[in-house]
Amino acid sequence: MHESHIDPNQPKSVLYRQLVEELRSLVAGEPDWIANLANSAALIYHSLPDLNWAGFYLLKDGELVVGPFQGKPACVRIAMGKGVCGTAAAQRTTQVVRDVHEFPGHIACDSASNSEIVVPMIRNGELLGVLDLDSPKLARFDAEDRKGLEDFVAALLAAT
């Protein structure tokens, strides 16, 4: 079992640097994509404060399908361009949403969620899916989270 040593109370820049280092150690030598996504979701969920969901949606047959995650049961399928995940996937850009209740077409999988960040996973120009994090706290995510999670996704894609 992998033991994480990340202190969630340190500055975000340090926290994300350590999170990426932990990720690299966790997935080193493991070629299985799903196994690495599962461990990545657990690492994020248990390392970052104020989350109620952390996981992946994978692109299959033109729609996003729930993949490995931590948290309450989730929406299984999300159309491209719908909700925060579908928008991030369609636009291929990270979406940082301070208040999901103000996001047009937000899909409420968990009524406790108030803010969200979604990072697309793109390898060699191909969209593989998205990393999705939800928080019960309004305005939980900011530019530091965007950079840190984009670095996290880049490290994950480079390792598998």
From TrEMBL:
<dbReference type="InterPro" id="IPR003018">
    <property type="entry name" value="GAF"/>
</dbReference>
<feature type="domain" description="GAF">
    <location>
        <begin position="54"/>
        <end position="153"/>
    </location>
</feature>
<comment type="similarity">
    <text>Belongs to the free Met sulfoxide reductase family.</text>
</comment>
<protein>
    <submittedName>
        <fullName>Diguanylate cyclase</fullName>
    </submittedName>
</protein>
<dbReference type="InterPro" id="IPR000614">
    <property type="entry name" value="FRMsr_CS"/>
</dbReference>
<dbReference type="GO" id="GO:0005829">
    <property type="term" value="C:cytosol"/>
</dbReference>
<dbReference type="InterPro" id="IPR051330">
    <property type="entry name" value="Phosphatase_reg/MetRdx"/>
</dbReference>
<dbReference type="Pfam" id="PF13185">
    <property type="entry name" value="GAF_2"/>
</dbReference>
<dbReference type="InterPro" id="IPR029016">
    <property type="entry name" value="GAF-like_dom_sf"/>
</dbReference>
<dbReference type="GO" id="GO:0033745">
    <property type="term" value="F:L-methionine-(R)-S-oxide reductase activity"/>
</dbReference>
